[in-house]
Design goal:
mainly beta; twelve-stranded antiparallel beta sheet; TIM Barrel; eight-stranded parallel beta sheet; 11 helices; Immunoglobulin-like; Beta-galactosidase, Chain A, domain 5; 991 residues
Length: 991
């Protein structure tokens, strides 16, 4: 039995760890400190990442030796560090959002607590008169440490550096480190984050060599005076000895040098300030007793005035994203280059802010944020969300927030999230926790943080749901923060009598096909100065690789790893796919948040607006162009250099001469200096009066030119080059034969159902109960009229489901011309007291020989009534493979909103037109197949290419974790009429 109980003791926060300090790496020479691009360039730094010996035990009590003998255990396997053990076949992945993964019984953990023993050898030369500090940047969930068979200490904050003075334990030659890591400890109750729960040494391990009398901790503040364009480097430390310092400007030119102790100030004239748009960094080097420390200094100052957030005297908005450490190959073990890849993609998508959800990052993340330029909300490693799932009245969100038994732990975790990163320019706000309630413990912590750091803002979103049993203290909070506030709530806050700016630390839940509300939130940010921005949930899907029953290496989400407690695919909720592939959702964000906005067009004047706070338009390249019916017809020269930050510019252009039947748009494409597109916006100058070909041609002779034959409820309608089979019972064609070629592999059908997107999760049960997925048509009356040059079918149908009222009452008129064109007219009334419709239209399951489509409408990405900014009105040709978005959890995708006309190409061309714009999709799977497949790799081999022609679809929204759609985006019509025509051309032509 394992006897050491540190891991189940709330009073043991750590054992024998070094005093907490701000992060830095010492260098042996001035030149090395000044020139280094990476910490590994320091001779005082020894990285211990790599292959470690390893042994896994399903229970802590299965370790075959006593606690003191753990360093002597034989380890037969290896594992990479950093990593999580679940990625290497030990234990199992588990994704949980809210619930604790263990029974709620703090500080105790289950008796069978899985664990691993790690061992690493490394070489040291002659032990000098120096000290050695062993650093673990993150271990999940705790660590016991031995060095050369001697117990050193213990720590248990997963996403925090654990530093140990190991000087007394080291010797010249080969040294040995042994680490015991458990899956659960008392800290588990404070780390109930929405993520895969993992175990192991998940971040880097390294040894740092220090001089005996070293500079340990210091703080740098950078007050500025924008009026005089000056900055101040204010340095403070408890260190008593002399500190030599040098300050270098952006070009590496020395601008100050001196020596001082404890506290000093350096004034900088003509100071180049730091911002996310222009991340200017000075280099500050300190020398103490032959040890050199380099800091990158961003002179900047965040302030709030009149509920507006200012940086360096300029108002700024936060266009941000929440970022978990998650990767399908690496799990939570993201290294510097992985962070860099993510950050550069964020820049390409016009993001300027990151919330470190829901724990501090490794130190190199913050250095990159300084360098690349981001406004960072750095969050403490605290989440106790699971208390809301306790039984009965025990389910109290504020349970741990107000129980003073947990107060010291909460304060400790918050301090550990701040001190290491207190000198980073990118950090503008400290977040106390995530989804852990509000109470006295956080009020004490906030007061402590305010004394610790007067230069940054303090955030606690749970103040929105305070402890109602007492008077709550919000005096040390700087913002009103909400998650997923509705549009009306945002307006209420911004128009109300509040004394703090409003921010959404999470909004626009980007799960699956979504979000659909980004543009509406952006409009509110533009409208209200006190709405300082928000952070989309979230950056990338969480999914981990596994080998399925067929031996395929596939991505899995909650429930795919044998978990009994899990939250399904709720982790697949990012703007990007797990491998960081860009999605149409991410491009939607990019275009909406374009740095230069195409604001309006009035007459012959175009207004562009620069929403950047510091960059002028000279930082970008732009093109304005006129398009008629999707074709570019002219380019309007623009000089963006004259657009100052937060200002507008008018451009005069000559409107083209067009007919009333033309669609005319003006497009604005924005690129960065490298030529990458970072924004594409469009305004409609004119919508055409759409003409439908008149298929009701005059009678040529007094005889029937279209033959009609009846076989029970089916009618065969045959012309010179076509033969159509129509089923009166369903109101649809079972076969379309043109030029001797049968086009359908299954009967066409009218559908209301869409494969539920993740944002439909709270609608789909109502939709199913209302009969939208499975139902039956009932023929009320039917007539077919044969004339010389056309056949007209009239049917009255009701759609129903046993046990409920009628879903739809539908009159349909189908007219077939001598040329074979089919014209539909629908007159539809929805039953009373039924929910919004998912969609309404007809599906034609075409042969797979039909494999591409030309269309005039919104493309090339899918588009919906509230999600269409990734796409733009134009003329497109695409393969069917390009029209399918392969979400890990299959769902509705590929729709094209506001289409004018489309032609599906195969053995013949199927041309679709309507008197009004319509929706269509062309996909290798049916809505039923997408609905039934739990994963993308569970989809069947495609048997047909499904052409869906729709009157309308319900909007997208972000209701998977937010509010329902605005009324204007809902398919809530009680009555509607719709018509379209379907023509077949033997010669495939472009539209």
């Amino acid at each position: 039995m394992f006897e050491n109980k540190f891991y189940q003791d709330l009073a043991v926060l750590s054992v024998n760890t070094a005093k907490l300090r701000n992060y830095y790496i010492p260098f042996p020479t001035m030149e090395a400190a000044f020139l280094a691009k990476d910490r590994q360039e320091s001779e005082n730094f020894l990285l211990l990442d790599g292959q470690w010996a390893f042994e896994f035990y399903a229970s802590i009590h299965e370790i075959p030796v006593a606690f003191s003998e753990i360093p002597n255990t034989s380890l037969s396997k290896t594992i990479p560090v950093p990593s999580c053990i679940q990625n290497y076949g030990y234990d199992a992945h588990q994704y949980v959002n809210v619930s604790f993964p263990i029974p709620y019984d703090p500080p105790y953990t289950p008796y069978d607590n899985p664990c691993g023993i790690y061992r690493r050898h490394f070489e040291l030369g002659e032990i000098s008169e120096r000290d050695y500090y062993l650093n673990f940047e993150g271990v999940d969930s705790n660590l016991y440490l031995w060095v050369n068979n001697q117990f050193v200490g213990y720590d248990q904050v997963t996403h925090s550096n654990s530093e140990f003075d190991v000087t007394p334990y080291l010797h010249e030659g080969t040294n040995e480190i042994t680490v015991l890591v458990m899956k659960w400890c008392a800290g588990t109750y404070f780390e109930d984050q929405d993520k895969f729960r993992t175990t192991g040494i998940t971040r880097s391990v390294y040894l740092v060599q220090r001089v005996k009398d070293c500079l340990w901790e210091y703080k740098i503040e950078t007050p500025i005076n924008p009026t005089s364009q000056t900055g101040v480097l204010h340095f403070r430390t408890p260190y008593q000895g002399e500190i030599h310092y040098l300050l270098f400007d952006l070009n590496g030119v020395k601008i100050d040098e001196g020596a001082a102790s404890r506290e000093f100030i350096i004034k900088v004239s003509n100071c180049a300030y730091w911002s996310a748009e222009i991340p200017n960094l000075y280099t500050f080097v300190m020398e103490v007793n032959g040890e050199y420390i380099s800091e990158k200094i961003g002179f900047r100052e965040f302030t709030i005035k009149d509920r507006i957030l200012y940086l360096n005297g300029q108002p700024i908005k936060l266009y941000g994203v929440n970022h978990h450490d998650s990767h399908p190959e690496l799990g939570p073990s993201m290294l510097k280059e992985d962070y860099r890849i993510d950050m550069l993609k964020m820049k390409q998508l016009n993001m300027n802010g990151i919330r470190t959800a829901h724990y501090p990052k490794s130190p190199e993340f913050y250095e990159l944020a300084d360098e690349i330029g981001f406004y960072v909300i750095s969050e403490a490693d605290i989440e106790s969300h699971g208390v809301v799932n306790l039984f009965g009245e025990s389910a109290d969100y504020n349970l741990m927030a107000r129980d003073e038994m947990f107060g010291e732990i909460i304060e400790n975790r918050i301090i550990r999230s701040i001190i290491p990163f207190q000198n980073r320019a990118s950090v503008f706000m400290w977040s106390m926790q995530n989804e852990s309630g509000y109470g006295v413990n956080y009020e004490k912590a906030q007061k402590m943080v305010r004394k610790l750091d007067t230069t940054r803002l303090i955030h606690n979103e749970r103040a929105a749901e305070p402890d109602l049993s007492r008077m709550n203290d919000f005096s040390n909070l700087d913002v009103i923060s909400r998650m997923y506030a509705s549009f009306s709530d945002v307006a209420r806050y911004c128009e109300g009598n509040f004394d703090k700016p409003f921010i959404q630390c999470e909004y626009s839940h980007a799960m699956g096909n979504g979000p659909g509300d980004l543009a509406d939130y952006f409009e509110l940010m533009e409208k209200y100065p006190s709405y300082i921005g928000g952070f989309v949930w979230e950056w990338a899907d969480h999914a981990m690789y596994l080998t399925d029953e067929f031996g395929r290496r596939v991505l899995g989400y909650g429930g795919d790893f044998g978990e009994t407690l899990h939250d399904g695919n709720f982790c697949v909720d990012g703007l990007l796919f797990p491998d960081r592939s860009i999605t149409s959702n991410a491009l939607e964000y990019r275009n909406i948040h374009s740095p230069i906005q195409l604001k309006k067009v009035e007459g012959e004047r175009v207004t562009l607006r620069n929403i950047q706070s510091f960059l002028t338009g000279a930082a970008f390249l732009g093109e304005l162009s006129i398009h008629i019916n999707g074709e570019k017809t002219g380019v309007i020269p623009i000089d963006l250099s004259r657009i100052s930050p937060l200002s507008e510019q008018e451009i005069i252009f000559e409107r083209p001469v067009v007919s009333v039947y033309d669609d005319v748009t003006i497009n604005f494409v924005l690129k960065n200096q490298e030529g990458e597109v970072i924004g594409h916006q469009q305004k409609i100058l004119q919508e055409s009066q759409i003409r439908v070909p008149d298929i009701l041609i005059n009678e040529i002779e007094e005889r029937n030119l279209i033959q009609v034959k009846q076989k029970q409820s089916c009618y065969i309608l045959a012309g010179e080059s076509f033969s159509y089979t129509f089923d009166a019972r369903t109101g649809c064609f079972t076969q379309l034969k043109v030029a001797g070629e049968e086009l359908l592999v299954a009967p066409s059908y009218i559908h209301l159902w869409r494969a539920p997107i993740d944002n439909d999760r709270y609608n789909m049960n109502n939709w199913r109960q209302a009969g939208y997925e499975t139902n039956q048509w009932n023929l009320i009356s039917f007539a077919i009229t044969e004339k010389s040059a056309k056949v007209q079918i009239k049917g009255h149908y009701r759609l129903g489901k046993p046990g409920i009222q009628n879903i739809l009452d539908m009159h349909i008129v189908i007219t077939i011309s001598l040329s074979g064109t089919i014209q539909y007219h629908f007159d539809v009334e929805k039953g009373i007291n039924l929910p919004d419709l998912p969609r309404f239209g007809i599906v034609f399951p075409l042969k797979k020989l039909f494999d591409k489509v030309n269309y005039l409408g919104y493309g090339p990405y899918d588009s919906y009534v509230d999600k269409h900014h990734a796409s733009h009105f134009g003329k497109y040709q695409q393969e069917i493979s390009e029209m399918f978005e392969n979400y890990l959890k299959p769902q509705e995708n590929g729709n094209h909103w506001k289409t004018i006309e489309a032609s599906v190409l195969g053995p013949v061309a199927c041309q679709i037109r309507s008197s009004k714009s319509f929706n269509f999709s062309f996909l290798p799977y049916s809505a039923t197949e997408l609905t039934q497949a739990p994963h993308s790799y569970d989809l069947p081999i495609s048997s047909a290419h499904h052409l869906s022609i729709d009157y309308k679809q319900n909007g997208i929204g972000s209701a998977s974790c937010g509010h329902y759609l605005k009324e204007k985006y809902r398919f809530s019509e009680q009555k509607f009429q719709w018509d379209f025509s379907l023509s077949f051309l033997e010669n495939q032509v472009m539209i």
